[in-house]
Amino acid sequence: MTNYHTLTQAEAVEYAQGIEDLFPDGAQLKLRDIGDGNLNHVFHISDQASGRSLILKQALPYFKMVGESVPLTLDRVRIEYEALRINGEICPDQTPKVYAYEPDLALIAMEDLSDHTVMRRRLMEKVRDPLFAEHIGSFLARTLFFTSDLAMDQQEKKLRVKSFINPELCNITEDLILYAPFTKSRMNIVEPHIRDSVERIWEDKELHLEVTLLREKFLTKAEALLHGDLHTDNIFIKPDSTKVIDREFAFYGPIGFDIGTLIGNMLLNYSGQEGWSTDAKERTNYRRYLLDSVYELWTQFESEFRELWNGYAADRLVKTPGYQNLYVTRLLQDTIGFAGVLMLCRVYGYIHVADIDDIKDAAARERAQRNALEIGVALIKRNRSAHSIKEVLDIALKVV
Amino acid sequence: MTNYHTLTQAEAVEYAQGIEDLFPDGAQLKLRDIGDGNLNHVFHISDQASGRSLILKQALPYFKMVGESVPLTLDRVRIEYEALRINGEICPDQTPKVYAYEPDLALIAMEDLSDHTVMRRRLMEKVRDPLFAEHIGSFLARTLFFTSDLAMDQQEKKLRVKSFINPELCNITEDLILYAPFTKSRMNIVEPHIRDSVERIWEDKELHLEVTLLREKFLTKAEALLHGDLHTDNIFIKPDSTKVIDREFAFYGPIGFDIGTLIGNMLLNYSGQEGWSTDAKERTNYRRYLLDSVYELWTQFESEFRELWNGYAADRLVKTPGYQNLYVTRLLQDTIGFAGVLMLCRVYGYIHVADIDDIKDAAARERAQRNALEIGVALIKRNRSAHSIKEVLDIALKVV
Prior knowledge:
Chains A, B: It is an enzyme of class 2 (transferase). The structure is a homodimer. By secondary structure, chain A is of the alpha+beta class.
């Protein structure tokens, strides 16, 4: 990575102009800086005349965390590129197109999704997306099945595990999601009014046991190539299209982590509805929509995963009667456990979610936080015994 | 590996002479070719005058299997060297000393263990080794604990997983141990007189389910740095010393596979006692010794593993009450399951064991084979419910 330097805006435009078959010669490109600047520079580059555009994402060699700049490997861009390439083959409809990749510059040029909206925003605005559950359930089934030992040549899969060893990014998840929230750590950001609930979580040894078992799976179980960070800011939606962005956390891990991250995020919005409508009926209706979406998401995932299994199992042993049922039940249990962990860490861990934090009214925000903590704890405690996605709905409905 | 060539005997002697601080200048070195020639050249090189000696092990770029030469990566020597280095630090008493390593030649010069005897021979000769269980139980506890997420920095562990991705050698295990024995495969070598029992195994779907679950663990669970091939030909013993050789199968896998491989081999000898003594009392006594050794091996492993855990746990969550008990019970269950699988594949799979195959009397050999199959099947079927090592002893005693 000796040739690495962060691109100036002029260089970014020049680079975009040089990508073959994208912009017309001599196009007047316009650049907009849309990155968060914590991890990456992200530029939107467009040509009004032709209506063409792209996103340039350049990784920064550090990560701004706890006010400090922590060095962070640029290898994550190779990982993102490889994951986009693999998922693009398996699931082209949900994967942004890649136009160019420059390893030396830690740079990827990819499809502009400006006509889509971030899913978290859509949920906060109570939009209903009838195709979301089908699209993402299918994305999960296909990307996870086809990268697992169930479908792959088992020796090629090992080389892929090697190529996606991703210690620094996994470390962020292991620290901020799977460790700090269960200890009195300075990595937690706890609003004083919910301190009592958080203290109870810190003291709940039964809960810690479940989290430790889930963490063990995250640390050891190389089941499939995960997205690794599938929250609702990483899904872009318009009515007829659903795209999944941001693959730098990709690694071989337990399938339930991806599904659980997403369901946990949907239930955070469910918990946060307290703050987004004063109309009780409207709240109830949208909550019902969210639970229906969770149910459909899982159901779409499960039925497509089973269908792929029946059609593309790697060998005869995979088809042993009873194995698929045990496997899918375990995936459900992992999903439920990780969903619960995700909910807790996003309420009082280092990174929160807008669905709850943006609620201005302190009493409503507190209710939302307590809802999320109650649902999260119940999900984690149910993880080893669950047998149906309906149990998730029941847990949520019992709390709100 | 462009400089690789197989050493002539003269080159081997010259190389040995050049190793610093080993042989006196001008020593008259004597070479003995002791390799099997299927996978490696192994030379014993010694100087009678000084009494010094060493082993030179050079990997061959192929593997003779099913009468053919299958290409096999020389990278396995790097893996063996790295595993010897890591285990040598953790467990110097059970690890042969390494004098030199030549990556280009796929060559390791290591400690001569000619004053030790192969454990399989010792068992076949009914020798009792009172220190074996303690030595190897401790070796397993230390090498497996200290390379796991329980003890290691979890990011360093990931780099180690990467360095020990070992597709070609794992493939041998996956094919010959975890797949072919459960299908009508040409990779099995079935003596006609036990064909009926083997056919029953090929049709036993309940058994296949358990094997498939165990295989899933082998394929996905990066728990600790395993030896990967810990049978009784890879343990060298003299009364006061126990050494573990041959690390080329090393990879990150489920801890129970190593312990199970060894216990399975001990129970193959137990099953084979039919052929090694006409004195019923002698047979019974040695069988009792073997079961006592299995019990002590597990007990030593478990108590030392727990002690290391209590002293060296990587973080606070690992110390969560109840976690250690669940973890150790799972290790026992995996051990029992893999022990059973090992027993079956060594009776009618591609690679057999001398403890049974060398029994000249066909009726006694058949009894030995049927004993092993019966114990193996029972162990596999017990794998998910077992809670005590005593269950292994009970299963063995019920059969013979």
